[in-house]
Amino acid sequence: VQLVESGGGSVQPGESLRLTCEAPGNIAALIAMGWYRQAPGKQRELVAQITRGGNTNYGDSVKGRFTISRGTALDTVYLQMDNLRPEDTAVYFCNAGGYEQIPGPPFDAWGRGIQVTVSS
Predict the structure, then answer these.
(1) Cα–Cα distance between 22 and 4 in angstroms, integer?
(2) 101 contacts 28 by C-beta, under 8 angstroms
(3) pLDDT class for 72, splitting at 50, 70, 90?
(4) Which helix (H) or strand (E) covers residue 19, if one does?
């Protein structure tokens, strides 16, 4: 399963960015999609996740600043990042889990990553 990420870039503190992740449209069932990030020298951490049922989960450091949402087709997820801070600088990875076919084995797919830099 190939995930396509877009929307990264460089901004100043306090500014906003929106990341987009698109999954193939022929997946039988997407259970959850989300974003993780990894800063240099640090472990990959959860940023935000949204389930098939619309439940959301956020990392503590982004609560109240970031919002995850889905497109109407459910195979696209958006991450609206507001009030960005220098510590948000990282490579952001899209993640998706589900079933390509039913019946079939589950998949856990990752995007290639997209750079977000917050600096004055």
Answers:
(1) 5
(2) yes
(3) confident
(4) strand 17-22
Asked whether 2 and 112 are in contact (CB, 8 A), the reply is no
Identify whether the C-beta of residue 120 lies closer than 8 Å to the C-beta of residue 54: no
Tell me the C-alpha distance between 104 and 88, whole Å.
37
Question: Residue 74's pLDDT is what?
Answer: 75
Per-residue pLDDT at 93:
98
Residue 86: asked if its preceding bond is cis (omega within 30°), the reply is: no
Amino acid (1-letter code) at residue 7: G
As a whole number of angstroms, the distance between CA 30 and CA 106 comes to 10
- Which of 94, 103, 114 minimizes the C-alpha distance to 1? 94
Alpha carbons 103 and 75: distance in angstroms, whole number: 19
Residues in Cβ contact with 64 at an 8 Å cutoff, skipping those fewer than 6 apart: none
38, burial (CB in 10 Å: exposed 0-12, middle 13-18, buried 19+): middle
Closest C-alpha to 35, from 72, 73, 61: 61
CB 91 within 8 A of CB 115: yes
